[in-house]
């Protein structure tokens, strides 16, 4: 079942020749020599675009819009193709690529209320819901939010997002596949969080980065690759303006973090040094778009940063392209890493 978010934006086409963009030169540096500007790729107007991933096998950009209950696919090798948008039965907070998926469009999905293997194109489940405690015991508007496959490929780490005016904190979970029972199982690794974001790992996999967005900080934890548990929480980075949203890691171990500003200035992506916690480079959004929500590296050389945005909590007419998909060809020498895949 294929649908679109808004009838006024039916299956929007890319605004640029994507192949030329990918194979072309890097975007020019700004005068400060420490920042570049992204450009609008698809004017898809997601209310809450999130969890953007590059599928290196299909050369597709994949992302979701949580509040619109939609899954999006854009094949970057076909500039004439329209953005594919699939309506889902409930809110999806995050998803993961699979190794050897049972169907081409099956992902590990973090729904609003748990984890499941799901074919987003055929709109059908391929597993039961995960076994474990309720991830949102009070129900909506609490839900799962940011998530990512760990360096081993054996776990999907994903945490909750408290609804407006709630006072009961949520948790961060590890979801694993039990080979004996052939069942997804989840359990908490962080017991108290308001809004989970920025989950990613250091190059050696022994440090996990995590933000509780309302406190304007990114933290780092020691990550046990054998058990999938965390310890020794330490502060890494303060947000000067806005909130820490989704993150990814580049090939040198720097953290790229989307900064959500909710109408109070232009959104941007920080490149953060893992040793000092300082911002060493930035990507700025155009069009006064303030809510940068997540980012990933893509393209054949993983040297393009793709960025989702949103217009949640805003009057969408105040930011004409908020919710669009943005991208930037990064300076020579900067590239990302292939996305880890969840092993069944």
Q: For the residues shown, what is the average pLDDT?
A: 94
Classified by CATH, the class is Mainly Beta
- The unreliable regions are 1-9
CATH-scheme architecture: 6 Propeller
Structural class: mainly beta
Order of helices and strands: HEEEEEEEEEEEEEEEEEEEEEEEEE
Describe this protein's structure.
The chain has one helix at residues 18-23, and strands at 35-37, 39-42, 49-55, 60-65, 70-75, 84-87, 92-96, 106-111, 114-119, 124-125, 143-149, 155-161, 170-178, 183-193, 196-201, 207-212, 217-223, 230-238, 243-249, 255-260, 268-272, 279-284, 291-298, 304-310, 325-329. With 344 residues, it is mostly beta strands. The two termini are 26 Å apart. The model is unreliable at 1-9 (pLDDT under 50). The longest helix is centred in the first third of the chain and has 6 residues, at 18-23. The relative contact order is 0.17.
Provide a compact summary of the structure.
The protein has one helix spanning 18-23; strands at residues 35-37, 39-42, 49-55, 60-65, 70-75, 84-87, 92-96, 106-111, 114-119, 124-125, 143-149, 155-161, 170-178, 183-193, 196-201, 207-212, 217-223, 230-238, 243-249, 255-260, 268-272, 279-284, 291-298, 304-310, 325-329.
Helix-strand blueprint:
Layout: H1 18-23, E1 35-37, E2 39-42, E3 49-55, E4 60-65, E5 70-75, E6 84-87, E7 92-96, E8 106-111, E9 114-119, E10 124-125, E11 143-149, E12 155-161, E13 170-178, E14 183-193, E15 196-201, E16 207-212, E17 217-223, E18 230-238, E19 243-249, E20 255-260, E21 268-272, E22 279-284, E23 291-298, E24 304-310, E25 325-329
Parallel strand pairs: 1-22
Antiparallel strand pairs: 2-25, 3-4, 4-5, 5-6, 7-8, 8-9, 9-10, 11-12, 12-13, 13-14, 15-16, 16-17, 17-18, 19-20, 20-21, 21-22, 23-24, 24-25
